[in-house]
Structure formats: C-alpha cells, structure tokens
Design a protein that fits this description.
Elements (H helix, E strand, L loop, with lengths): L3 E2 L5 E2 L2 E5 L3 E4 L2 E4 L3 E5 L7 E3 L2 E4 L3 E3 L9 E4 L5 E5 L4 E2 L2 E18 L3 E9 L4 E4 L3 E4 L4 E2 L1 E6 L3 E4 L2 E4 L3 E5 L6 E3 L2 E4 L3 E5 L1
Parallel strand pairs: 1-4, 2-5, 3-6, 4-7, 5-8, 6-9, 8-10, 9-11, 10-13, 11-13, 12-13, 13-14, 13-15, 14-16, 15-18, 16-19, 17-20, 18-21, 19-22, 20-23, 21-24
Length: 196
C-alpha cells in the first residue's frame, strides 16, 4: 500500500494486483493485453486502488478479497474474455465495453460499486451477480443468470432493464430496507424477497 503507479503509454501482458490492506494510486490508463488477476490478501480492509483506469483485453479474475477503491476497470477486448469472481472478492467500478467475441461470466461476481454493460455479447452461464453497496447499475440489453441484491441500508439506481433468466433475489440485511430506484427488473425465473 501507499504506492503510486504511472503506467505511461506502454501495453502490459499479464498483470496481478494484490496486497495486504493499504491504499495505492493509479495515474492514467494501464492497458493489459494478457490476463488481469485481482485479489487482496486481507479482508480488514481489502487493498484499495484509487484513480486511473485499467483496460483489460484478456481474461480477468477476482479472487480472495478482490479490490476496493475508485479505479475504473474496463473490459475492452476484441475476442473472447472470461470474467471470474469468488464469493468474497470485491469488484470495483467496472464497465464491459467489448468490441468482439463473447464475454463469459463465471462464479460469483460481487459488485461493490457502479456496474455498466455497454457493448458485447454475454454468456452468463451459471454465474451469480451480487450487488451489495450503494451503486448505479446499467445492465445493458443482455440477459443474466442469477442476480442478488442484498446488504442494507443501501440504494441502487437502475438505468434500463435488468433481465434474469435464473433466480432473482432481493433481501435487505437491515431493518432499514434497501431501495432500488428507476429501471425495470424483468424476471424469467424464480423471484425471492427475503428478510427485510
């Protein structure tokens, strides 16, 4: 933690972002043509990366405790990409803006801030998308498998229509309930309203 990274105009192959707590700063845009691996080794709190943008053109994996902070991750490949998550791995602000191929979601994807699907073809498979913190969600015109809104009290702002072919679950963990404002939830599978 405490480092500043200025990638400049060069392009990187494989990149791993990790650390034990702490906060670092990214200045400018880091372009990753190979695999991007993101995983803090601490949960109290996870590593934070602030500022700048990471443009990922290969596969992206969020493991362990993921990453917090304001850094913007963009999925911008022109061929197939797989985005893999795990139950405890936070995903920071992210946009999928694929220009070709198919973007495949795998595992449990824990979005902790804004999520946008701008362009591309999505293969949702058996994935689970989890939204757990106040955020703006722009789901695009693709269909998702399982989606879970939880935590509380939080407010989600939905722009557009979020379509689920699997299970849609909404459940606040607080007696102060969550709010989902705007947009449409379109469910083709089971719907569960849990807790508060």
């Amino acid at each position: 933690g405490g480092n500043t990274y200025t990638p400049g105009p060069i392009t990187f192959n494989d990149v791993t972002i990790t650390g034990y707590s702490g906060s670092s700063t990214l200045v400018g845009t880091m372009t990753v043509n190979g695999n991007l691996a993101v995983g803090s080794t601490s949960s109290s709190p996870p590593t934070s990366l602030n500022g700048g943008t990471v443009e990922a053109k290969g596969n992206v994996t969020f493991s362990s405790y993921g990453l917090l902070g304001s850094t913007f991750i963009r999925i911008v490949g022109s061929s197939n990409q797989t985005i893999t998550g795990s139950s405890s791995a936070y995903i920071p602000r992210i946009e999928v803006a694929s220009t070709g191929g198919t973007v495949t979601y795998a595992g449990s994807l824990l979005f902790y801030t804004n999520y946008t699907f701008t362009s591309g073809t999505l293969a949702a498979g058996s994935s689970l998308l989890r939204f757990a913190n106040t955020s703006t969600i722009v789901p695009g015109t693709v269909s998702y498998n399982n989606v879970l809104f939880y935590g509380g009290p939080v407010t989600f702002t939905l722009s557009g229509t979020l379509t689920t072919n699997g299970t849609l679950t909404v459940g606040s963990s607080s007696t102060n309930p969550k709010y989902i404002n705007g947009g449409t939830l379109e469910a083709y599978g089971d719907v569960y309203l849990n807790n508060y």
